[in-house]
Amino acid sequence: MNKIKNFYYILIFILLANCGYKINDQSKLNLFSITDFKITGDNKINFFVKNKINSKFSKSVSNKPIKILLSTTKDKKIKEKNIKNQITKYEVDIISEVEIIFLNENLIKKFTFKINDDYNVATSHITTINNKNNSEKRLADKLSDEIIKKITRIINDL
């Protein structure tokens, strides 16, 4: 009975001591500043992503500079058609290749993100354009959130 009790204590200790859980600390983003942000590809998506990422980082020059290279491609495909063979829904795919260079740490990380969304074709053209613009803004928001999460993970591991 005593051996079984000791075994359970050891097992619980091992599980609790080696869980590996680590909290991502967003406050460490303020220690870093973006010195260079190069973008290629779709200008509209890149504009939204760049603004959101820049708002998360310190505006002052810090001793931990980051350089970000962002290449984004947008692909619009037909998702659905009705019985009359009219397009009713489009799907927008965004593929983004991100290269993050930590200049002082001599560390380069490359990532590829693929995010998609769809929007409906309305009866009026202006509504369809608004649906498309809203979809692109949602995609840019998702993409920038993913990039910020990735940068936060890397910074917490440094």
In short, what is this structure?
With 158 residues, the chain is an alpha+beta fold. 40% of the residues lie in helices and 35% in strands. The mean pLDDT is 85.
What's the SSE pattern? HEHEEEH
Extended strand count: 4
| Global mean pLDDT | 85
Q: Which radius of gyration do the C-alpha atoms yield?
A: 22 Å
- Number of helical segments with 4 or more residues: 3
Strand arrangement within the widest β-sheet reads 1-2-3-4
The biggest beta sheet is recorded as:
4 strands, mixed
The CA-CA distance between the termini, in Å, is: 46 Å
Strand content: 35-45%
Features:
single chain; 158 residues; alpha+beta; four-stranded mixed sheet; 40% helix
Layout of SSEs?
Blueprint: H1 2-17, E1 33-41, H2 43-56, E2 65-81, E3 87-102, E4 107-120, H3 125-157
Parallel strand pairs: 1-2
Antiparallel strand pairs: 2-3, 3-4
Helix pairs in contact: 2-3
What does this structure look like?
The chain has helices spanning 2-17, 43-56, 125-157, and strands at residues 33-41, 65-81, 87-102, 107-120. The protein is an alpha+beta fold. It has a four-stranded mixed beta sheet, covered by helices on one side. Helix 2 links the parallel strand 1 and strand 2. Helix 2 crosses helix 3 (125-157). The N and C termini lie far apart (46 Å).
